[in-house]
Amino acid sequence: MPPKSDINKAGWEQGDFPILCETCLGGNSFVRMTKQEYGRSCGICTRPFTVFRWNPGSGARYKSTVVCQTCAKIKNVCQTCLLDLEYGLPTQVRDTALAIKADAPGSDINREYFAQNMEAKMADNKSFLESGRAHSAGKDMLKKLARTDPYYKRNQANICSFFVKGECNRGTECPYRHEMPVDNELSKQNMRDRYYGKNDPVARKILAGHAAEQGLAPPEDTSITSLFLTALPATADEQSLRTTLLQSLPSVSPNSLKSIVHPLSRCAFVNFRDRATAEQAAQAWAAGVDIDGTRAGVRWGRSR
Length: 304
Prior knowledge:
Layout: H1 7-10, H2 22-25, E1 33-41, E2 48-54, E3 63-64, H3 69-75, H4 91-98, H5 108-121, H6 136-145, H7 161-164, H8 191-196, H9 201-213, E4 226-230, H10 238-247, E5 257-261, E6 267-272, H11 275-284, E7 289-291, E8 294-300
Organism: Botryobasidium botryosum (strain FD-172 SS1)
Protein name: Pre-mRNA-splicing factor SLT11
Keywords: Metal-binding, mRNA processing, mRNA splicing, Nucleus, RNA-binding, Spliceosome, Zinc, Zinc-finger
């Protein structure tokens, strides 16, 4: 155990069992793991931590933990796949639905300092994902998108690089997959983007698909940057709408909201300055948006 007098080693992590989702752990009830104390640095906070390595099942590749338990607890994610433990979804989908702002320290020193502070605060087993802005619409959205069953296909072996080059002569005895890789947006994933919930291609696909199912597919006319809210409560006014809508979009700058046109009827037009922000709002409000205890409907505006 590192001496407590050494401030750089005092935060090094020692664990007895990893924090894993059911998919990464595998379907084998008698899985065997290897444990290596301070085996590598955490992919997020860069502090050394205990690394676990195991085989999830027959035909699967060996998997290992890539982030420390402190970073996993902060975001409530699996130490290997970095997906949310409760819903099985990327953190960007969860944070968008629950209106959680993704704060990411810039430098390695700031990340380590942030992790040490969070570790001290988690002594009371307090969850950092509780948000007062988490409305019922966002929770309903997560319940609909949640992945409840394990997806063991995610553990399959990697693609054989020799097969891709046409040089593999091992045939069926090759432990790797013999198929050509697919080069698309989903193949370009970044661990820190997945953890912090920013620019995650898998999350963008899930959010866009859910919005399309709710009738909020982006219109072909790219000049449309307005959303139309219906069934607003009688107590809603322009200022309360602006406050509530910006709270439900913590990653969006207040300057991105151009204006709100709220006539006497219980509806309003929400105008954004650019199309990307409007699409982001449509994805976040696909299940509706709660305003003063009333769930308002959301639709795209129309071109003039």
